[in-house]
Fold:
Amino acid sequence: MLTKIKGHTYYYQGGTNLGLVRYKNGTALLVDAGIDSTAGRAVAQALESENLKPKYVLITHAHPDHFGAVKWLKEQYPGLVRYAEEHEAVFMKHPRLESEALYGSAPLRQLEGRFLKGPAVEIDVILQAGEVEIGDKRFQIVSLPGHTYHQVGVVTGDSVLFAGDSLFSEEIMEKYGFPFLLDVEKQLQTLDFLAGLEVEQVVLAHAAQVYSGVKELCAQNKARIEQYLELVLGWCDQPLTREDVTEKILSESAMEVDVPGYYMTYATAGAFLSYLANRQELSLTVIGGKCYFYRD
Structure:
């Protein structure tokens, strides 16, 4: 079911919330697409119940729950035009890169499930931050890195921001405790940017509500990151490996994880450690075949 936010801007609430902008000629632009053909069918049915057909799809970032349904949608609607940021487009064209990046080499078979490896998707139009015209409508593309290296958000002409996974909702923070990030410094910058962005409504990919303002949510996200930065610094009063820090994060957040969940946490642990080491708040050295991080 499509829910109207304002003007020509709607959203579809599902496992991953999708954006939609309606055009006068009965076509629509989608922001993200869902994880697979089942999600694609559900979205298509919701559009067709409103006598709409997707003509454009804009992907915020290259995680399968955002782009996995594009392949099916393109098969059903051959004229569909696919938009994404240049670097994210590479990961969609070569989806095994996601699990390779997490593992650092040829990945474990457990890291190639549908949540980490979507179908290969070609992108038609490369996006850059700034104003873009799609059909007869103008959109503002904003850079929102941190969760991935080159995630983008989309501001519609109705002053609605579709923010992808640049912010974690209260329920997601409560459920998972520890955020999945690849670049802590960029994420902190993104949170500051979002807190100052003047838009009327904000849609997150994983949230039960549409937000009329996100300044407080940005502060909560920032506080969660700062909490774990302090924890990591404290743990590293004694030399610890990245694996040790991952174990402590899982214990602190009380998360029960499978193999993919472990390596997602391991990746984020690395992001926190590199942030602190690059700021010279942690030192590191290799002793006895292990790389230890420690506070002087």
